[in-house]
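At this stage, I needed to go through a protein sequence along with its fold in token form, as given directly below:
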Amino acid sequence: MPTKNYLEKALELAHEAALDDEVPVGAVIVHDDKIVGEGRNTREKEQNPLRHAELIAIENAARSIGSWRLIDCDLYVTLEPCPMCLAACQQSRIRKVVYGAKDEKGGAICLGYHIHENPRVNHRFEVVYEPNEECSSVLSEFFAGKRKKKQ
């Protein structure tokens, strides 16, 4: 399945998150062209700051393949991972991260945390930004709705 289709599945999850009044971020993890883990933000529902889409997808993928080592797995996520999630990708040995929208205020790459290519860490991996208008617009619309409700 091409990258676009994996990001489309992540977008479906992001839309589900928005319906639950969660920041609309979705993530899927792929191994051998099969989705083995998926997640969407549930921080508000669970009142848990760790319930980011990527962390949930990593947890589900590890359970699915029976190992915490997600070697040969790729993460597709609608929004640039935060430093915590990028570190979780390093710890779980993700092979590649592909994201569709930048996060100028909270994204690890935009903030300069390049743990994925640090030669001093024991696992390095590829991170690819593939601009996707819908990944950006679902977030913009969500936050515009939040601002409108405040007025």
